[in-house]
Design brief:
This protein has about 400 residues and is of the alpha/beta class. It folds into two domains: about 230 residues, Quinone Oxidoreductase, Chain A, domain 1, CATH 3.90.180.10; about 140 residues, 3-Layer(aba) Sandwich (Rossmann fold). The strands form four sheets. Strands 3, 5, 6, 7, 10, 11, 18 and 19 form an eight-stranded mixed β-sheet that branches. It has a six-stranded parallel β-sheet with strand order 14-13-12-15-16-17, with helices on both faces. The model has no long low-confidence stretch (mean pLDDT about 95).
Length: about 400
């Protein structure tokens, strides 16, 4: 296998992705190597290539699945597998985080809680360039393939994976990470966090801000779980039409031509006083304040789209008591997630024959060289999600 060469797309700066080739590694005893079948592009992937300037190249891509081509003799002990023991030829989808297991967060909350671990390794995380440790994002250093934007990926010990059914399309399995973000957002409103308010139930009026892939999957989950009302908002009719078709939302509202106050009033009107649940997956900080104003008293607000800054350094002035505290709303975000939530999300994706997850993929391509051109389309009116499925 060492004579086989494989390609990896390397982030080297502002909208710059360099295609490099390296020998495909053989798995050590405690690891596995997959040939990637499909990867998707996340909004954060685009954020990473939009950062100004140039920098040392790092591997990118964290939404991916593939077929095992090399399996270490102890891999079934060191990899954490949902679905039974692994063998060469199995199709698997990957949890992109390996937590350290030693920091205060890991010791407090357990292995695999991503986003808050002090030394969380992320497949395709781009910027860990510490060559003193094996798990980094430097493509020149063995095992070279450390993310989803590549033809292969080396899976280090400690990685969680799910066995993918033979008949499940790769592009559906590769939606696991964004689906888990949506699932985590909904799960955070299911149980009351103190106080007198109730959690999510069949009486809940729900608002999802933004109509991207995560937003639409959030609406799908809310609808499937029996929400009384599901509303989704966006600036583009094309995306709202997709949300209506895929998630069967009650209202798909174009708020592009409204003022901030008009948007708030529209939601208060549609929900008869405010949403019990507001989940914001729009990626502009101005939506945070609007979303908080749309929450009903003792309701729930969950932030997805602006949970991380990504270098924007956006600042705003608000009346904190009036906007944040006055309603006694429960406010949280989706940063930390767990393999268990991913597992529940994978079970949801297994319903792909009855639920139209495939319609979330609006842009399909087949080569690493197309990543940047596709990323430049991510602001288009009809863009929901992009997936690359290699032809061979």
């Amino acid at each position: 296998m060492s004579e086989t060469m494989g390609k990896v797309a390397v982030n080297t700066g502002y909208y710059s992705m360099e295609i490099q080739e390296y020998p495909v590694p053989e798995a050590r005893d405690d690891a596995a190597v997959i040939k990637i079948e499909t990867f998707c592009i996340c909004g954060s992937d685009q954020h990473f290539v939009k950062l100004p300037g140039t920098h040392k190249g790092g591997t990118e891509g964290h939404e991916f699945m593939g077929r095992i081509i090399s399996l270490g003799k102890d891999a079934n002990k060191t990899l954490k597998v949902y679905g039974g023991e692994l063998k060469v030829g199995d199709r698997i989808v990957v949890y992109p985080h390996i937590t350290c297991g030693k920091c205060d967060t890991c010791l407090r909350f357990g292995d695999g809680v991503c986003g808050v671990c002090d030394d969380d390794y992320i497949y395709g995380g781009v910027f860990d360039m510490d060559t003193g440790k094996e798990m980094n994002h430097v493509p020149e250093q063995w095992p070279h393939f450390k993310g989803g934007f590549a033809q292969y990926c080396y899976l280090f010990p400690g990685t969680y994976v799910w066995k993918v059914p033979d008949d499940m399309p790769g592009e559906i399995a590769a939606l696991l990470d964004p689906c888990a973000v949506a699932m985590r957002a909904v799960e955070q409103v299911m149980t009351p966090i103190g106080g007198t308010g109730e959690g999510f139930s069949t009486t809940s009026r729900c608002l999802v801000i933004g109509a991207g892939a995560i937003s639409i999957m959030t609406a799908m989950i809310l609808r499937e779980m029996g929400a009384k009302q599901v509303i989704i908002t966006d600036f583009f009719d094309e995306k709202l039409a997709k949300a209506k078709e895929i998630a069967k939302v009650d209202e798909a509202v174009n708020v592009a031509d409204m003022t901030s106050d008009e948007r708030v009033e529209k939601i208060l009107e549609l929900t008869e006083g405010g949403a019990h649940v507001v989940i914001n997956a729009a990626n502009h900080p101005s939506t945070c304040i609007e979303g908080l104003r749309m929450v009903r008293k003792c309701g729930y607000y969950v932030e997805i789209g602006n949970a991380m800054d990504f270098g924007a350094h956006y600042m705003s002035e608000i009346n904190i008591p009036a906007v944040v505290f006055e309603k006694n709303a429960h406010i949280t975000s989706v940063v930390a997630n767990t393999p268990q939530c991913f597992d529940r999300s994978f079970e949801f994706l297994k319903r792909w024959k009855e639920l139209p997850f495939d319609k979330l993929i609006t842009h399909r391509f087949t080569t690493l060289e197309e990543i940047i051109p596709v990323m430049k389309k991510m602001g288009d009116r009809d863009f929901i999600k992009a997936a690359c499925t290699f032809e061979d």
